[in-house]
Amino acid sequence: MTKNVFAVMLLVTIFGCKKPGDDDITAYRWKRDLYRARVHSEGPAVFYSKDPNVSGNQDAIFLSSSFVILTEHRKNIQQDSIYNASGRTQIYKYEKVDD
Question: How far is CA 67 from its chain centroid?
């Protein structure tokens, strides 16, 4: 009985810490575009969401583009990181590149 409880706790720990769909094994090639929020006279320059569909957003100003090789999980971490570190003024938009 103790072995079963231990096995269940171990499985919950292993599979419970990862979000479904976050692949941290397979590396992909991504085209990464960096955007900055537009400054408005009536308010701060911020994105109100880290939604990657910023190309149609009128408040998004394109800054740079690069190609990176990352796992799906690392891509999500970088996307969250730049959004939070910049005070919600910059975001990355990723597109998977087929080789």
Answer: 15
Token output for 48: 């109100």
Query: Is 10 within a domain?
Result: no
* 4 found inside a domain: no
Rounded CA separation 12/54 (Å): 36
Residue type present at position 17: C
Q: Burial of 57 by CB count in 10 Å (0-12 exposed, 13-18 middle, 19+ buried)?
A: middle
Q: Is residue 41 part of a domain?
A: yes
CA dist., res. 10 & res. 18, Å (int)? 14
Tell me, yes or no, whether 59 lies in a domain.
Answer: yes
Distances (CA, A) of 58 to 13, 55, 66: 43, 8, 22
Number of structural domains found in the chain:
1
CA distance 18 to 21: 8
Q: Tens of pLDDT along 12-43?
A: 666 666 555 556 788 999 999 999 988 877 87
